[in-house]
Amino acid sequence: MNPDEIIGEVVHLTRLHDLWRKYECINLIASENIMSPKAEELYINDMMHRYAEGLPFKRYYQGHKYLDEVEVKAQQLMAGLFNAAHVDLRPLSGTIANLAVFVAFLENGNKVAALDVPHGAHVSHTIHGALGLRDVEVLQLPFDKERMNIDVDKAVKLVEQEKPDMIILGASLFLFPHPVKEISDAAKSYGGLVVYDAAHVLGLIAGKQFQQPFEEGADVVTSSTHKTFPGPQGGVIMAAEHVDFERVQKAIFPKLVCNHHIHRLPALAQTAWEMWRYGEAYARQTIKNAKALAEKLSELGFKVLAEEHGFTESHQVVIDVREYGGGKVNAEKLEANNIIANKNMIPGDEASSETMKNPSGIRIGTQEMTRWGCKEKDMEAIAEFIHRVVVKEENVKDDVMEFRKSFREVRYC
Predict the structure, then answer these.
(1) Is 107:79 a contact under the CB 8 Å cutoff?
(2) What is the pLDDT of residues 337-348, one digit of tens each?
């Protein structure tokens, strides 16, 4: 082994990655985004070398007179942006945020109502993920496959009859706002806790272009901070005034997180400021772009989910590509042409390991290309690229790279 050669290769590969993903690809991964240059600048700071166990001004280490203030100010920006009474920025991811809520509020033997994975649930909402670390009974929320949303009447009936201790809303496959008010009203009649996982739509909520979970009755909102919300990777938990938030804080530390990678907080604060100033325009354009992309894909002959209901009201578009070989095959074909999207389970898929390897769908997100400046006409061009790759089996890599030359500056910042 030659360590000099290896580190040289690491540096070279890192630079190749940056060039490829930032400037040569059309990124349509629904769970990714790009930070602004100012946020990237703030991300690299001395705090990455430091420890900050505990809460601001109540640490177990010394040396925090500036970073404590940064954390509090970042909390203030997030609380104001989302109308939250309580905010904790210490979870390192959306999954850790979910797990902290499960640890805080669930006991063994409790009932939890959540979606199934083919209906949009994130794996952390299931016994196969973070929820499985609690010995709970999981009830599946009824789902309307045509509307690609929770079946409101059946879900309310389930909540009223079964009285689950926790109901998890929000999703990983998330086209339309969930019926938070109706389910919250049913849960509040007996004291059930409504948790809304906003990981995918946090930026749309910030821009006031999607539903507002707290106003509609959610008790707790969990999220990651790097999807439609274009910040650094990390997690957040927010809660309404009446929630016993000390339980959440104790679940985070010392149970799940010690040092919470505090160098990301200045970049998170910068992103929150950007959403205060530009979030409405960004979120509106993101949704417009998703609708334009879905309409063009449908026009080109793709089976786009929820066509009769307007395709989408979020950043996501989902296409059924079973007739073209499935999600895995086509995601790989697209990647070979510098179009990055992901295979995804859709309603009708069985939640099995075999199906997960090659599910029926491809999930597409418009948020990052919106951030790079794309508008509706550009989405139509992207749809044409996808059609040429998946249906016509053409090589469009050079055309994609030429297309990206017009989108080199991050907007809405």
Answers:
(1) no
(2) 999 999 999 999
